[in-house]
Amino acid sequence: MTLLSFQDSPFTVKLSFDKYIGTIATSTQENHRELLKEVAQYPELRTGMTELSVIEEHQELISRLLADFFPRGLSLNEIKAVSIPYTETIFNHTDRFKAILKAAGDSFQINIRGFDEHQFYVLSCCLILNQYYGTKLDFGKPLFYDIPMQNGVAKHYRIMYNADYLEVEPTENVVKLSQEEIDLLINSYDDLELWREKFPSGSWILKGFALMTLFDATIENAVSIFKEKLLKLKANDFQTSIESIFQSIYRIPDLQVGITLYHPAEHKFGITTIGEPVKSFILPDRQQRVDQDVLCPNSYRRIVEQKASVVISDSLKFQESEPDNILANRFLAQGIKSFILMPIVKNETLLGVLEVVSPRSKDFNSINVNKLEEVVPFLTDTIERLISELQNQVQVVIQEKFTTIHPSVYWKFHAEAQRLIYDRQLGFDATVREIIFPEVYPLYGQVDIKGSSEARNHSIQQDFRTQLNGITFILDQMTAPLSFENSQKEKRSIEAFLKELSFPLQASTEQHISTYIETIIHPLFREARTPALLPLIQHYFLSTNEETGDFHTSRRRYENTISQINEEMAKILDHSQIRAQQIFPHYYERFKTDGIEHNLYIGSSISPGLNFDFEKLHELRLWQLRTLMQMEIAHNRLKAGLPYPLDVTTLLLSYHSAITIRFRMDEKRFDVDGSYNARFEIAKKRIDKANIKNTTERITASGKVTIVYSNDSEEQEYLRHIHTLSAEGLLTAETEHLEVEDLVGLSGLKAFRVKIIHSAS
Fold this sequence. Notes:
InterPro entries: GAF, GAF-like_dom_sf. Pfam families: GAF (PF01590). This is GAF domain-containing protein. The protein is of the alpha+beta class. It folds into five domains: 206 residues, no CATH class; 137 residues, 2-Layer Sandwich (Beta-Lactamase); 39 residues; 88 residues; 199 residues, Alpha-Beta Plaits. Helix 19 runs antiparallel to helix 22. The longest helix has 31 residues.
């Protein structure tokens, strides 16, 4: 049998004691001199052994040779052996090491935790890089053995290697590495084939031996694993995982763990749900109960009032002293003979109780309870987070299943989310019901930025002209890598683009120019090496920065214009909404595009606790018209200071009938329900581009508000509103009566158009 755990390795391993024998060769000690004479009879101890059978032949001599490393007085204390690093080749164990392996059983095979062939190969190569090529790679990481005790509970041991007596030697098959290849390897850990290429199998000799020492890291390792498990709360094996951790800490194979939450506001204990319900020995029936109904007076005082632990070493004796003790009787009924109840406390608030229980008496006491101090702080943070998650479950469901919900309709989403969570906790196959609001009246309005598309195209054209002229200037200075013929060719391309930019911008022009610059010009500039050109090219690339560069100046001015207008309009609308909600609570949503659009839906189904009447609808329509006037007046004041002095048009759409709105789960938004109600959506999407009937003139115009309606009652209502706002100095008294051209799927609409008094305050 070979000395390697993995078949594939850059090493041919030779177990040799040559280096150590050399260190004791000069010793004057009589026992060393006698030992060296005996060793000299077996040259393979120095030249190297490659088979385990040979090692076993010399086991007794090797043990005496390495006696200085293995003092007899420490053999029952130290966990130590001779090894080849990262392999299963281990021999010359101390007595304690032998006892640990014997307890693990004959079928136990010792393996490094999580150590695979990839790691073995790469770490072996790193050893070569450090010892032969002089790199200083820090490739060490904590390595562990998980070794079960006789009762089956695993203990965790950290591995430490002393490789002072290992040497790395090349064979004739070695691949010599350059510094560039070493650098490539260092940054290619995951590329196993590359490592195998540079360090072929068996191309190096690993000669010598290593001393391996194990340290019992069970508690530290258990805490580390516990922290890892707490990060994976939703795992299906959470209960089993944490119990195995506590079993390692206490070395009790049938130890069990429970966690019970505490709700201080209600003075109740409740079940912890982490993926699935966690055991609770305080609440075996999983029903919430008042704290004083589940704790005896003494345990209530200790846990709830003093925030201190309760440790019962012998439940039977506890019951004998207090026969009517509800806590003792409950735990004994579950077969628990010894237990710890440790409060989980954060900022002097009791969050829950950690329960560690055993079926045997005297497994726990006031001394070993202190072991929990290592893990409880991590559990405390987790329980605090869990409680916060529980408190926010309704909001989480709303965000997951719905969207950011307007306060006016939040009550209905809250009720549905609460029903969903409750059904899930009871194990029902719960699905989300549709959220529908019937019989609501819609109001739609917009302040649209006029000529925004033309302004955007103009800004793009200006920026491209600046950039193309800059490119031409640099091309005139270039002599390499561009030939004269190619230089002239690129100048002709640029001239063609500049000519194209003198006409209205086409949809494809922007993409064509951008692609040309990125794929033709920029590679040329990056290849330039002429010293005189480098400052020009550096300045050119700085100018391409979208946030600060000269080649995006006009587009930034355009975007800044749109942003300023939208921000001012949105601020006025949102602020005015506070007053509108006081008229009657209604659903409100706002959108920013090239301007501001908004939808309002009002009706008794949205606020079932209030009495809705048409006076509320009329009042809200007046509010909407007044707010749109205020938005346009604010824009008029803002316009003079804008980078692009763009105008706006204002439109309001009245709809005579109540409609039904439905929350669309796939799009996370409300939409009208039914084909008949869809007429309102059609009108919204098409009305701002509509013309006056039998003309080519748009129904919207700068400086005027357009009110679109469909019947006589709406006409009379809005005439009253116009009169009111004229008296307030927001509108003129003159009103244009218009007919709207027939739209696809929509006809018979009418409109008012009224001039806005921009000087109004």
